[in-house]
């Protein structure tokens, strides 16, 4: 396995691999790898012959009061995990390599961003889309693998691929969870012991809502109130949002129908956790 820090070298490696007829699978990450990331690598290995992951904490997607400086970083740890998982290349650029000058152009996401995480993080998905667009051009993968834990991000990337006719197949992978149901996330390390004990209630509230929908409940307002009450009663966290939307359009609905996403964001003292579940009726 190689660690590559420059765009030029990364492109050269990809060009060489494609000359030999190898398909490129790509897993974009911000590092501090966990089983969720590694499950994406495992899925990529089922379909592609040469696996690239990127590790880049992208400043464009962090707001002024967010945790860019505190975001966990440990390249030595990540290198060991990636090598054991069978990754061929880690693309590990620094900020100057990715953004050598002030950007003259960037991607602006116009739909599906003023809700869920985008509502409280203006400009976040512009930053996500811009860096992913750059990474797609640098790595030029056949397939790119994203976890459905960040379902809004997946929808944004899916729409960007369609809008710009990008020659990459988006592979949507299911959320990987701890044994108690908590979605795996790099931010889980910020939870206090008591918050970690409470955090699985996010998943429990999703399951409860899904069961009620499957049992015939169609009133979205009622379901949202019940989810919020569950989280408020069972945890010390502050509910950022509870939404039930059509998926993947992320449009609001009057009542439950078709394919929906139940999405939650809960703020603890030092971590904001998100989770979601899709339901079809």
TrEMBL record:
Q: Which Gene3D superfamilies match?
A: HUPs (3.40.50.620), Pantoate-beta-alanine ligase, C-terminal domain (3.30.1300.10)
What reaction does this enzyme carry out catalytically?
(R)-pantoate + beta-alanine + ATP = (R)-pantothenate + AMP + diphosphate + H(+)
User: Where's it found, cell-wise?
Assistant: Cytoplasm
Assigned GO CC terms: cytosol
Q: Which residues form the active site?
A: 37
Q: Which InterPro entries match?
A: Cyt_trans-like (IPR004821), Pantoate_ligase (IPR003721), Pantoate_ligase_C (IPR042176), Rossmann-like_a/b/a_fold (IPR014729)
Q: Does the keyword Cytoplasm apply?
A: yes
Keywords from the UniProt entry: ATP-binding, Cytoplasm, Ligase, Nucleotide-binding, Pantothenate biosynthesis
- NCBIfam families cross-referenced by the UniProt entry: cyt_tran_rel, panC
Q: Which residues bind beta-alanine?
A: 61
Q: Which GO terms describe its molecular function?
A: ATP binding; pantoate-beta-alanine ligase activity
Q: Which organism is it from?
A: Anaerobacillus alkalilacustris
Q: Which family does it belong to?
A: Belongs to the pantothenate synthetase family.
Q: Which domain of life is it from?
A: Bacteria
Q: How does it assemble?
A: Homodimer.
Which pathway is it part of? Cofactor biosynthesis; (R)-pantothenate biosynthesis; (R)-pantothenate from (R)-pantoate and beta-alanine: step 1/1
Q: Which residues bind ATP?
A: 30-37, 147-150, 176, 184-187
As for what it does, the entry says:
Catalyzes the condensation of pantoate with beta-alanine in an ATP-dependent reaction via a pantoyl-adenylate intermediate.
Q: What is the lineage of its organism?
A: Bacteria, Bacillati, Bacillota, Bacilli, Bacillales
Name-wise, this protein is Pantothenate synthetase
This protein's gene is called panC
Principal cellular location given in the protein's record: cytoplasm
Cleaved signal peptide residues: none
Q: Which GO terms describe its biological process?
A: pantothenate biosynthetic process
The enzyme's first-digit EC class, named in words, is ligase
**Which parts of the sequence bind (R)-pantoate?**
61, 153
Q: Could you say which EC number(s) this protein's record lists?
A: 6.3.2.1
Q: Where are the transmembrane segments?
A: none
